[in-house]
């Protein structure tokens, strides 16, 4: 099923050797970036990393990447995203949105 999906959307799936950094450089860099950001937001024992994942992913996908010079979200969707700042300034912003805003700002600093 996955092979058919990739074929239909014109994606060539490439395989690499496991545990071989020379062939997995981009993935290794991505994982290191995500790990550092998750560590910055997680508690001391890192038991809540899964709660921080949406914030870290949002930050990653809405930041300019040095490789492409582009923002991944804009490349994927052809438009810019509604930022938390815009959402936060709406009159009915909830405490949850404020919490998201604080987490995104904390992630951006790391």
TrEMBL record:
Any one Gene Ontology molecular-function term assigned to this protein's record: nucleic acid binding
GO biological-process terms attached to the record: DNA integration
Matching Gene3D superfamilies: Ribonuclease H-like superfamily/Ribonuclease H
InterPro entries recorded: Integrase_cat-core (IPR001584), Retrovirus_Pol_polyprotein (IPR050951), RNaseH-like_sf (IPR012337), RNaseH_sf (IPR036397)
Domain spans labelled Integrase catalytic: 1-80
Protein name as catalogued: Integrase catalytic domain-containing protein
